[in-house]
Specification:
By secondary structure, this protein is of the alpha+beta class. Among the domains are: 67 residues, RNA-binding S4 domain (Structural Genomics Hypothetical 15.5 Kd Protein In mrcA-pckA Intergenic Region, Chain A, Roll); 114 residues, 2-Layer Sandwich (Pseudouridine synthase). It contains 7 helices and 15 strands. The strands form 3 sheets. Strands 5, 6, 7, 8, 9, 12, 13, 14 and 15 form a 9-stranded mixed sheet that branches. A 4-stranded antiparallel sheet has the order 1-4-2-3. Strands 10-11 form a two-stranded antiparallel ribbon. Helix 1 crosses helix 2. The longest helix is centred in the last third of the chain and has 13 residues. It is globular, with a radius of gyration of 20 Å.
Length: 320
C-alpha cells in the first residue's frame, strides 16, 4: 500500500523511539505497533512503505529486525476526515471470487481517496461493486498494492481479511510475479539487463523517490521487445515493488518512460509530444499469485490499452 504521487500531507505526530534489549529480533512493523499507541500493524506497514518510518535515519522494510540501541523515528501524517461513498464507476473485472477481485485499472484513475481527490477513485468504485468489503475506518479498503494514477493495468483487490493477509504475505515474501510493458526514450542497446540499485524517498521532496545507496533494495529486469529510431518497447519483470520503481530505474539508466512528467526529463517530454502520448507509457500487463482460499497459482493479464497501441502503431508505421 503506497502513497499516491499527488498526495500531500502534514505531519501530525512524530515519535522518536529507542530500541532496547527486549526488542532485539523484533520486526520493525511489530516494534512500531507495540511502541505507538492505537496504531494497527497494517497502518504501521503503510507508514513504513511510505517512508514515514526510519531506523537510524534510513528506510527499512517492515520485516527488518530490530537491534538494541537503534533510534526509530515514526512520522504520522495528519489525516483528513472523509466519508467514503460508493460510486457507480464502471470496472473492467478480469476475475472475481468470494475473496478477491482482479481488474484492469484504466490510466487516469487514482486508487484510493486522499486529500485533493476524495472521490472518483478505484475504492469508490469497489464499494459500489462489492459493498461487502469492510471499510473499518480505512480509506484504502481492500487495497493491498497500488498502481500510479497514470499507469494502467492489472490489479488485485482483497474482499476479505483472510485474502488481504494472504496477498500481503505473498508480496512481502516476493512470491508475486509482476510484468510490465513500457515505451522508453532512446534505443536500449542490450537485449536484456538488470537494474539493481536501491531506492528511497527523496530527502527533500517527499512526493518523489530516487536512487539512494541507503535505500531499500530494488531490482528491475528488462528485455527489449522492439526497437525504433528513438524509442524502445520493453518487457519489464519487477523483482521488487518499491514506489515508482520502474520509473526511477529507467530514469537512472537514461531511458525514461515516455510521458513521465515527474522523472522523464526533456527528451521524454519531447517524444511524448511528438507521439501524442498524454500519460506515461507504462502498463501492468501480468500479475501472478496464489489465489487465497483455493491455493491455486494463477496468472492474470490485462491487454494493452488503446493509447499505447496507438503510439506503437505510429512508431511502427513511421519508423520513429
Amino acid at each position: 500500500m503506497k502513497m499516491d504521487e499527488e498526495q500531500s500531507f502534514q505531519i501530525a505526530h512524530r515519535h522518536e523511539l529507542s530500541a532496547l534489549e527486549d526488542h532485539v529480533g523484533m520486526r520493525l512493523d511489530q516494534f512500531v505497533t507495540k511502541s505507538v499507541p492505537d496504531l494497527s500493524r497494517s497502518y504501521a506497514q503503510t507508514l513504513i512503505d511510505d517512508g514515514m518510518v526510519t531506523v537510524d535515519g534510513m528506510d527499512r522494510r517492515s520485516s527488518f529486525k530490530i537491534s538494541a540501541g537503534e533510534s526509530i523515528s515514526v512520522e504520522i501524517p495528519e489525516t483528513e476526515s472523509m466519508e467514503l461513498q460508493p460510486e457507480a464507476i464502471p470496472l473492467e473485472v478480469l476475475y472475481e471470487d468470494d475473496g478477491i477481485i482482479v481488474l484492469n485499472k484504466p490510466a487516469g484513475m487514482v486508487v484510493h481517496p486522499a486529500p485533493g481527490h476524495p472521490g472518483g477513485t478505484l475504492v469508490n468504485a469497489l464499494l459500489h461493486h462489492a459493498p461487502e468489503i469492510s471499510v473499518a475506518g480505512s480509506t484504502r479498503p481492500g487495497i493491498v498494492h497500488r498502481l500510479d494514477k497514470d499507469t494502467s493495468g492489472v490489479m488485485v483487490v482483497a474482499k476479505t481479511d483472510h485474502a488481504s493477509q494472504s496477498l500481503v504475505e505473498q508480496w512481502s515474501q516476493g512470491k508475486v510475479r509482476k510484468r510490465y510493458v513500457a515505451i522508453v526514450a532512446g534505443v536500449v542497446a542490450e537485449e536484456e539487463a538488470i537494474v539493481d540499485v536501491p531506492i528511497a524517498r527523496h530527502r527533500t521532496d517527499r512526493k518523489r523517490m530516487g536512487v539512494d545507496r541507503d535505500g531499500k533494495a530494488a531490482v528491475t529486469q528488462l528485455s527489449v521487445t522492439e526497437r525504433f529510431a528513438d524509442t524502445t518497447l520493453l518487457d519489464i519483470d519487477l523483482r521488487t515493488g518499491r514506489t515508482h520503481q520502474i520509473r526511477v530505474h529507467m530514469a537512472y539508466i537514461r531511458h525514461s518512460i515516455i510521458g513521465d512528467n515527474v522523472y522523464g526529463g526533456a527528451t521524454s517530454a519531447r517524444l511524448a509530444k511528438e507521439l501524442n502520448a498524454r500519460r506515461q507509457m507504462l502498463h501492468a500487463a501480468t500479475l501472478g499469485f496464489v489465489v487465497p482460499g483455493s491455493g491455486e497459482p494463477m496468472e492474470f493479464q490485462a491487454p494493452l490499452p488503446a493509447d499505447i497501441e496507438r503510439v506503437l502503431a505510429r512508431l511502427r508505421s513511421e519508423g520513429t
